[in-house]
Design goal:
Helices cover 71% and strands 2% of the residues. It has helices at residues 2-22, 31-57, 69-100, 105-136, 140-157, 170-178, 202-226, 232-244, 246-253, 263-279, 288-308, 316-319; strands at residues 191-194, 197-200.
């Protein structure tokens, strides 16, 4: 419990420094700044694998599955890569939400900051109950595996589906019934008074829509990492580090999302692999290095192919 408390305290210290010091004054996050912070979070995330090895090697944390320190390290890295890769889809949706509600780039960081807090709480609850279900009902592994395969097939076929429209979503209509919504943004405020009546600003609506979408994405990502390990600390820590790096990664990739249109197939491959792994767990267990290698290779191939096949920008003369 001490390790859990220290880990959570460390995370909230990071978040407090983020909003209270580094981003105290709202400003547009440049690609350079976002790139630096993306590098910082990725470095911290991989460096934490050394902490994981140390914690499990010295038995400073409860080890219900009895895994070795080296195995715990590989499972953590594998889980982190899965969560990071599945976050790419989340980045696309966030971009659509911000564009739909016309959220100024100056205030996007504030919305994502509070979105991260909600995501940490919700992911923690999902992981807690997910671990309980898997440990108590072994058949849940098959259910999660089948769900991941279904998700992969759905992603493969979704090219013909309509684009996501935040203003036409159920959550937007529900918010409108609870509190009036204004299209006017009052600086960085989530609420504003119009004729002495509280109205939700586009920032608050965007925040809630992002929270709901994260819950939906968690339905894929949490079962996926539970296929790697059911150790609560490994699942939670890898999840949290991926979420913490999501904001800076969004600002880093926001202007070049179209270049990674083939990364979707990497996600499909990863979900399919993890789903199959869960379905055959009683017959064959993939070595940890195989899972890590497959996921890393899928991401690398998706990124390389996306860059090589990225559509060239037309010159003004060609567009006329």
């Amino acid at each position: 419990m001490i390790v859990w408390g220290l880990f959570l305290a460390l995370i909230f210290i990071f978040l407090a420094l983020d909003l209270g010091v580094f981003n105290k004054n709202p400003h547009v996050i440049s690609s350079k700044e976002a790139g630096i912070w993306t590098g910082v979070w990725v470095t911290l995330s991989f460096a934490f694998s050394g902490v994981v090895n140390w914690l499990y090697g010295n038995k400073f944390i409860e080890n219900p599955t009895g895994i070795k320190p080296s195995e715990a390290t590989i499972k953590y890295i594998t889980g982190y890569l899965i969560e990071l890769s599945l976050s790419v889809d989340n980045i696309f949706i966030i971009a659509v939400i911000f564009a739909s509600f016309k959220i100024s780039r100056k205030y996007q960081h504030r919305v994502l900051f509070w979105g991260i807090l909600g995501a940490i709480v919700f992911r923690g609850l999902m992981i807690y109950f997910g671990v309980i279900l898997i440990n108590k009902f072994s058949w849940m592994t098959y259910l999660f595996g089948a769900f991941l395969l279904f998700t992969a097939v759905k992603m493969l076929a979704k090219k013909d589906e309509e684009d996501f429209d935040p203003k036409g979503s159920l959550i937007y209509r529900i918010i409108g019934r609870i509190i009036p919504i204004t299209t006017h943004t009052e600086k960085e405020n989530f609420f504003t008074k119009i004729d002495n009546v509280n109205h939700a600003t586009p920032l608050f609506v965007a925040l809630l829509v992002i929270e709901v979408m994260d819950m939906l994405f968690a339905l894929d990502s949490v079962p996926a990492i539970l296929a790697i390990t059911s150790d609560p600390f490994l699942v939670f820590s890898s999840n949290i580090f991926a979420i913490l790096g999501l904001r800076s990664m969004y600002f880093f990739l926001a202007n070049m999302l179209e270049k990674f249109n083939h990364l979707e197939y990497s996600l499909i491959a990863i979900l399919s692999f993890v789903g199959i792994k869960m379905l055959i767990v009683d017959y064959y267990k993939f070595p940890e290095w195989v899972s890590l290698s497959f996921i890393a290779l899928s991401l690398i191939v998706g990124i390389v192919v996306s860059i090589l096949k990225a559509p060239e920008k037309k010159s003004p003369d060609e567009e006329i």
